[in-house]
Write a structure and sequence with these properties.
The complex is a heterodimer of chains A (191) and B (108). Chain A has 191 residues and is mainly α. Chain A has nine helices and no strands. With 108 residues, chain B is an all-alpha fold. Classes of the chains: A mainly alpha (191), B mainly alpha (108). Chains A and B meet through helix 2, helix 3, helix 6 and helix 9 of A and helix 1 and helix 2 of B.
């Protein structure tokens, strides 16, 4: 089957084809899922190189589990987000264990949230604010508002209830608002 | 409740969505190399087996179980209805393999 025709297949169908030895299915799945995994990992870790490593590791786990994939249990994308989440959590914990908690803190001399806004780099400013959130709040708000997932899917990924997702997202947004909105208005981003 | 239209954070989220990291060629190549490596292993993958199944095989599987069951049934049967020969053996006088040992003890 040509690569173009694979765009009509579901992620699960592609995974089954891969398990049966179809290399093109791997290519289609990589195109479809790896950027999402990378985006989530990058937002979680705030480090592009580490996010790439996490993405590669998560995709490797997907390849390995493909032959055992049970159809109807979970969507491959949901499963992959969960793996990425766990890998990121491990890395963040390890970094903190080694006293490298600065991952979540902007270092002296780096541009402040305000300076980032002056440079009109809202994405960067948001990332800096995200880095200061507790892990679970960060996960929830990234998945909801940047990755665009629905709350029930986020609940599956985080293995918590939908209500807990809503609560985490609300708290995260309050914290982000506090970190960003003041500067935003000062700099004329209102309306 | 804030909607996405009046959510003061929405500009930031939108900026982040537009600034999503791109999957570089090098990473994609690494990912596909992993996929090739997994395919190359033949992938009649080793499925995880239950501990009970592992124990079952460790004991020898069906052939060993057949022997074990036969021996158990025979033991129960002998217990319920012992053949005459077994009773005879039980009642036989114990053979003294060291007939002089008691004498040695007595001599100190």
């Amino acid at each position: 089957m040509p690569l173009d025709a694979m765009s009509e297949l579901s992620d699960t169908a592609l995974l089954v084809r891969f398990a049966n030895g179809d290399r093109l299915a791997a290519l289609a799945l990589t195109d479809r899922l790896a950027p999402r995994a990378l985006g989530f990992a990058a937002r979680m870790l705030g480090d592009g190189a580490e996010a790439e490593d996490v993405t590669q590791e998560a995709m490797l786990r997907l390849w390995k589990i493909a032959p055992d994939w049970r159809q109807g249990e979970a969507e491959p994308a949901t499963w992959l987000y969960r793996v990425v989440r766990n890998l990121c959590t491990d890395r963040l914990r390890k970094a903190r264990g080694l006293g490298l908690d600065q991952i979540a803190e902007p270092e002296d001399g780096q541009p402040s949230v305000e300076a980032s806004l002056i440079a009109q780099d809202r994405a960067k400013a948001l990332q800096m604010a995200l880095n200061q959130l507790p892990d679970r709040q960060r996960e929830a708000v990234i998945l909801r508002h940047i990755e665009g997932l629905a709350n029930p899917e986020i609940a599956q990924i985080m293995e918590i209830s939908t209500e807990a997702v809503e609560s985490l997202t609300a708290r995260a947004k309050r914290a982000l608002t506090a970190a960003l909105t003041g500067q935003r208005e000062e700099l004329g981003y209102g309306d | 409740m804030a909607t996405e239209q009046n959510d003061p954070l929405e500009d930031f989220f939108e900026a982040a969505r537009n600034d999503a990291p791109q999957l570089g060629d090098a990473v994609q190549a690494r990912i596909l190399a992993d996929a090739d490596a997994v395919l190359a292993t033949g992938q009649a993958p080793v499925k995880r087996r239950s501990r009970l199944l592992v124990l079952w095989d460790g004991l020898g599987g069906w052939p060993a179980m057949a022997g074990l069951v036969t021996a158990t049934v025979a033991g129960v049967w002998i217990g319920i209805s012992p053949p005459e020969m077994v009773e005879t053996l039980i009642n036989m006088q114990t053979v003294d393999y060291l007939p002089g040992f008691d004498a040695l003890l007595e001599e100190g």
